[in-house]
Design a protein that fits this description.
elongated; seven-stranded mixed β-sheet; alpha/beta; five-stranded antiparallel β-sheet; Methionyl-tRNA Fmet Formyltransferase, Chain A, domain 2
């Protein structure tokens, strides 16, 4: 059966590889985001999916707008019987969703209906979820609202950061597709409507979302540091400039701690007093500087002790 793939980010690469190797289908095209300037140098680069698709020798389409009638016509001319989507970054219009008779299957890195939307992996870490997973569902016009075809759950240890969890879930998604695609095409996996309970929505991040708020408990801030790596990152606005927080730990509140102030800490050299506990600053990067431990930062800026941050 003729298949088409929609994807852009790194999470989608193992899924693309699984689809390309699937004996049930012939992959006729890969649709990915157009090349964009990357990094400070602004060098135009392909998406991770675009790069991998070309190495696999697959035809690649990079439309700006999927709603463009010419783009719809190009996809229709491929006569796809089934579609697969992962980490594409855009909603598909109904004109595209209606093309394959077996629909377009989306691999979403959460246990739907939890964490629909753009940032489900950081959300699972930020919220302190005990488990997460991957959902395979048939797409409809809503945002991650279609009926569920298959799921796979995994337990979280509580020390994951977003890049490591993304890699783990990407491998899980590829395996889920390998095990589910054939049964789906044979009619052996009837889709089930999503529950109306425990629905949550995530959104794209802004840089300011990375600000650490000392009015929150230290445990929540430590999860934020892990969840928001590498984007939008986490930071404190201190006297002398912004300090990026790359790794952190937690410790109990000590007498005299005032939430919002930096304090000397035996475990890390420097900590942020919060509403409940201390956020130990294990690895930091001052504005314009290199990565270092907090003790090294403190040696250069001893005035940070007792400084108020925001």
């Amino acid at each position: 059966m003729r298949a088409i793939f929609f994807g852009s980010g790194a999470f989608a690469v193992p899924v693309l590889e699984a689809l390309a190797a699937a004996p049930e289908v012939m992959l006729v095209a890969v649709v990915t985001a157009p090349p964009r300037p990357v990094g400070r140098a602004g060098v135009v680069g392909q998406t991770p999916v675009g790069e991998r698709a070309r190495l696999l020798g697959l035809p690649v389409l990079t439309p700006e707008r999927l709603r463009d009638p010419a783009v719809v016509a190009d996809v229709a001319a491929l006569h796809p019987v089934v579609g697969v989507l992962a980490d594409y970054g855009k909603l598909l219009p109904q004109t595209i969703l209606d093309l394959p008779p077996y629909g377009i299957l989306n691999l979403h890195p959460s246990l739907l209906p939890q964490h629909r939307g753009a940032t489900p992996i950081p959300a699972a870490i930020f919220e302190g979820d005990a488990e997460t997973g991957v959902s395979l569902f048939r797409m409809d016009a809503g945002m991650d609202t279609g009926p569920i075809v298959a799921t796979k759950a995994v337990s979280l240890s509580g020390d994951e950061d977003a890049p490591r969890l993304e890699a783990r879930l990407a491998a899980l998604a590829a395996d889920l597709l390998r095990r589910s695609l054939g049964p789906w095409l044979r009619g052996e996996l009837p889709p089930v409507a999503q529950s109306r309970e425990r629905v949550s929505i995530t959104r794209p991040f802004r840089r300011e979302d990375g600000r650490l708020d000392p009015a929150r408990p230290a445990a929540g801030l430590e999860r934020q540091v892990r969840a928001y790596r590498p984007w939008p990152g986490t930071f404190l606005q201190a006297p002398g400039g912004r300090i990026a927080i790359l790794r952190a730990g937690i410790a109990a509140t000590q007498p005299g701690d005032v939430p919002g102030r930096l304090v000397a800490d035996d475990g890390s050299g420097l900590a942020l007093a919060t509403a409940d506990g201390r956020l130990r600053l294990l690895e930091v990067q001052p504005a314009g500087g290199r990565n270092m431990d907090a003790a090294a930062l403190l040696r250069g800026r001893p005035g940070l002790i007792r400084a108020r941050v925001g």
